[in-house]
Amino acid sequence: MALPSKRISIDLLSVRVLMNIPNPIHSNKENYEEGVVYIYTFNDGGGIILHEGALMQFEVDSYKPSVVVHKKEHTIYIGKENDRCWRKDVCKGLRFYYYNVPSNHKKQYDRIFDTMKILKRK
Fold it and tell me: Which residue, 35, 38, 45, is CA-closest to 8?
């Protein structure tokens, strides 16, 4: 993921998420009765999911974490599945995931998540 990144703004139900990501090869937004989901896929096979709402499960939710980090109102689950890295962040009804990430790109995806900004929508 040595590609240049761009700053994007994503409106979920109650918040706006600002994050720097490389150009995705595919992106999809799905509104459903209880929420909204954004999915981005990248050249290295990795993906990012941003979700707010209820009654939605993703394959990553079934993975067993090797590390769980509890912060103030924020829990981070980290692991590997099929020799690929994944991470799930849960914070105040929001869920952010990266998945299928090659080990040599994990730091770049961590940086995307660690530097994202979450702003309340008016």
Answer: 38
Cross-sheet strand order for the sheet of 117-120: 5-11, 15-22, 117-120
What the block records as the tokens of 82 is 């099929």
> What digits encode the pLDDT tens for the residues 41-86?
999 999 999 999 998 999 999 999 999 999 988 999 999 999 999 9
Tokens of 63: 């993975």
Structure-token match 């590609």, residue found: 3
d(CA 16, CA 2): 26
CA gap 115, 122 in Å, rounded: 22
Residue type, 19: M
Would you put residue 17 in left (φ > 0), alpha (ψ -120 to 50) or beta? Answer: beta
Report helix, strand or coil for 111: helix
Rg (alpha carbons) of the chain, rounded to whole number: 14
Q: pTM to 2 decimals? A: 0.93
